[in-house]
Amino acid sequence: MPQDRQNRLFSRGSWPEASRIADVLRAETTGGILLIIGAVVAITWANTPWAGAYERLRDTVVGPSSLHLDLTLGTWAADGLLAIFFFVVGLELKREFVAGDLRDPRRAALPIVAAVGGMAAPALIFVLWNLGPNGDLRGWAIPTATDIAFAVAILAVISTHLPSGLRTFLLTLAVVDDLLAITVIALFYTDQLRPAYLLLAILPVAAFAVLVQRRIRSPWLLIPLAVVAWVLMHESGVHATVAGVLLGFTVPVLRRDGNDGPGLAEHLEHIVRPLSAGFAVPIFAFLAAGVTVGGLSGLLESLRDPVALGIVTGLVVGKTVGIACSTFLLARFTHAELDDDLAWTDVIGVSLLAGIGFTVSLLIGELAFGQGSERDEHVKVGVLLGSLTAVVLAAAVLRLRNRVYRRVHELEERDDDQDGVPDVYRHR
Asked: Any signal peptide, and if so, which residues (predicted)?
């Protein structure tokens, strides 16, 4: 007798959630392509005779010094623009666990366990590489992050049709991964904590929460409060992007009238996501990814640094082993099985894809070693090389199964009675 789909790993969720995930991934695909373009332009520019112009642009200082906001453009991108990105992360997380399929603990367990395994294994590998006298343990969190925009852009480029269960898993894994990453940033990469400013930051966050709980969505009220919260968080010593996540958490997911339909969180996500994916993250990538490699000799010199080696092996080996093994152990202890159309090869392929660490990895590298430092340059080489290796291996594995994915995709799209809901969701 076939096993209940509720006890299967990577089974389809509900149709509303599957359609929402598809919309999110389409937006992330566009943002991911822009991100890749920004990174390629930066790397190319930084390795031309005009590299000095790129560095001057990145290091241009703007902002009022009286408020301690005279920051370089690179810092503005890392602290300011990525706060928009993490605001969307906060909205995604709250919606997933309040109204999404992940409100079911059985469905939430898989991406949470996989995200923890996918962070622990890369961190451990990095630490093992850096235990020697030439190592530096400050960057242990660099290879722990997954860049979902980059990952789904690669899926679009290699033209593979991941089944909806795997697409949902990849997105929710990355969202939980982002939550863990911002927690790590707040706890381990805060140099000088100023409690007074941190307490003051609670006031605009609380005011923002009161307004959104009353379903007040006026940008003339919400944006100034968000900016004040960001400034105070920046002054507190805690990384300013934490303000974005906290503000996202305050937004209600469910409608006040109790009816079905998009709530305020989904409404704001629909407005802010294009700004995040289409502008904030690509600009950060452009200002953060420009590393002067110096040809093959420069590449080899960077890879002599255990920091770079720890990042490359952490992203490629650590992510794959951590996610795949934690998923296998979860299946073993819960007696769950993979969904009918999937094999463990698919889990390995998605685990390799999660080894694409870019946006948050580069951010943590700057926080750990300082923007523009020699080790920060080695971090960029490690992140880029590790992500590129993960791309090649993931593409090879997933393309092998693309015929199966196409068949599942056709099944998930089939709607014989033309009611707008694919038959596989209506009859499951």
From this structure: none
